[in-house]
Write a structure and sequence with these properties.
two-stranded antiparallel sheet, about 60% helix, 3-stranded antiparallel beta sheet, hpI Integrase, Chain A, about 300 residues, mainly alpha, DNA polymerase, domain 1, elongated
Length: about 300
């Protein structure tokens, strides 16, 4: 019975458009919560008191050893479950206290410098292999447009709006946004579309923009994108922190560093809360402090 309810809650997340990774994280968080209940001799989800959940949150905060973000994700899974149980009529009340705050957002780590990004582009631009030219587009979408890995993977041919110079992107929760595409990036994207992508197709009629050789032209998956960046790190001598998301961070900080309004950057990134974007302004403050320390006599 309770396992069925857990699966029903996770299915509701999928129907809302949550990505598979988010659903898996919720599943893991709820499994850990159930294990904690078992150790506390609480046999049922419906026997949980507000005090028991508060004790679990306290354990997450003080004893789990998890990062603030991980603590928050696990707490959100529990609170999301009980809110769903009450909303669907399976429970009379929601015993959850207010979810754990994620606290101050941490500064993004390992944001690639301009020199490093130029080196990445040079490595891929000189490739004669069509996979290398596809990989160039993947890197350019991460840095040139600030796209997440799953947003890159989900792109279809029809999402390119060449006349308007934009790209239709499906973000978290299935939310769509239009991201401006620079002239150079759009030219490279169209070259890939008309000259490189057809070479991957062997009878396939897929709408996917970025393809692999599999099944006569199949949409790339997370594994392919991960491997693209693994090979790039190996060729450029970069640390494991250089990922699609680190290029997304570089996209945001470079825009703000050159005077782009915070609200516009937030829209381009697909953030639902402006505070998420404001973290990048702290990166700029760090830059200023570093320059002051380097150049000022009393730095």
């Amino acid at each position: 019975m309770e396992n069925d309810l857990l699966e029903g809650f996770l299915e509701s997340l999928r129907l809302k458009g949550r990505c598979g990774r988010t659903v898996d994280n919720y599943r893991t968080g709820l499994r850990d919560f159930c294990m904690h209940l078992g150790k506390s001799s609480i046999g049922s989800l419906f026997s949980v008191s507000p005090q028991a959940i508060a004790a679990y949150f306290h354990w997450l905060r003080k004893e789990s050893g998890l990062s603030r973000s991980s603590q928050s994700h696990k707490a959100e899974a529990v609170c999301g479950l009980y809110a769903w149980l009450k909303r669907e009529g399976y429970a009379l009340s929601n015993p959850c206290p207010k979810p754990l705050s994620r606290g101050p957002y941490r500064l993004p780590g390992a944001i690639p410098a301009q020199g490093t990004i130029r080196r990445m582009y040079r490595k891929l631009a000189g490739s004669e292999r069509i996979t290398g030219q596809r990989d160039y587009v993947i890197v350019d979408l991460a840095y040139g447009c600030g796209l997440r890995r799953d947003e890159i993977r989900r792109l279809d041919v029809g999402d390119i709006c060449a006349e308007k110079g934009t790209l239709r992107v499906t973000g978290k929760g299935g939310h769509e946004r239009f991201v401006p595409v620079g002239t150079k990036t759009m030219a490279d994207l169209l070259y890939y579309l008309y000259h490189i992508r057809p070479q991957f197709l062997k009878g396939s009629t897929t709408r996917a923009l970025l393809l692999t050789w599999i099944a006569g032209g199949k949409r790339i998956d997370r594994t392919v994108i991960n491997r693209v960046f693994w090979l790039l790190r190996k060729r450029c001598g970069l640390s494991r922190h250089y990922t699609p998301h680190s290029l997304r961070h570089a996209f945001a900080t470079d825009l703000l560093r050159n005077g782009a309004p915070l609200q516009d950057v937030s829209k381009m990134l697909g953030h639902t809360w402006l505070g998420t974007t404001q973290i990048y302004t702290r990166v700029l403050v760090t830059d200023v402090k570093r320059e002051h320390h380097k150049y000022h006599p009393r730095g």
